[in-house]
Model the fold of this input.
Amino acid sequence: MKDMKRIAVVTSGGDVPGLNAAIRAVTRTALACGARVIGVQRGYEGLIAGEFIEMTSKDVGGILRKGGTILGTSRSERFMTDEGRRAAKAQLERAGVDGLIVIGGNGTLAGANELYKLGFPLVGVPKTIDNDQYGTDTAIGVDTALNTIAEAVGRIKDTASSHRRAFLVEVMGRRCGYLALASGIICGAEMVLIPEHPATPDEVAHRIIEVSRIGKAHCIIIVAEGWPPGLRALQHHLLTNHVEEGFDVREVVLGHVQRGGTPTAFDRLLATRMGVRAVESLLDGSGIGHMVGLHGGQLSLVPLAVATAQPKPLSPELLHIADILCH
Ligand code: F6P
Done:
């Protein structure tokens, strides 16, 4: 394998807290190993367009605690095509880039696997607040998002208890209920609604009435974004069918608040560990075509083909706990 003299780093897909910590670790590790570093701006869109900047150690100073990504990001339809990926590969080769670190979620890493199959050496680093990346216990951003939700739900509980209200709190997770499940447990929610275990609006109504009858001062229902039939339909159902019963109901959509903010200590450490391992395993060749994963606290290298081939199932243990404590 030829020596890598110049490596690039890209963040693509939805941003998460901790991306900057990863960019910093990648840049400084590569520089320490004698390689030059190219930052790709605007995610895969910038990769296709050749939006590259040389990164120095100073460029990544003071960014460890910053949310977002200093490189920018995008959701790229074009990178999902063979033509887009070939254009990106040509841009990397034109710029003399020998290897690439891709920091992304499952869509981004699936794209990275296709680029790798075209013959470009790269290593993936998982980031997503949804914790839906197969092949790793957790990803950069999950811990910070959960802490943000816990803080927000705590505030909601204060006002809910004062007014004796039920709150439907929507958290992110289009296809995966992890954030709802975990936040339901750590916030002491009365019910959790996730795409993997659909409950009917009538079941939710009955739960709200039951919690009211028990004499609780609040009722917190955490709703995953991807739970069918969705928050609006649920609210409509409760308003039209159960107006007089149980609590007065309000709704809160936490939305992109969950994606911003300073990363927690856990996310900074995880991003730094993964960034260092990604560069070292790119340079020595052992990680090429792999994603850095975390298993039982230890980093490992998982083939991208495996990591991107299947959805990550929800933890049976967390489902069991929620069954006991959120019902
Ligand atoms: O995939 C991460 C995620 O935050 C999902 O939980 C959410 O559904 C989606 O991104 C929102 O995407 P966007 O920022 O493009 O609206």
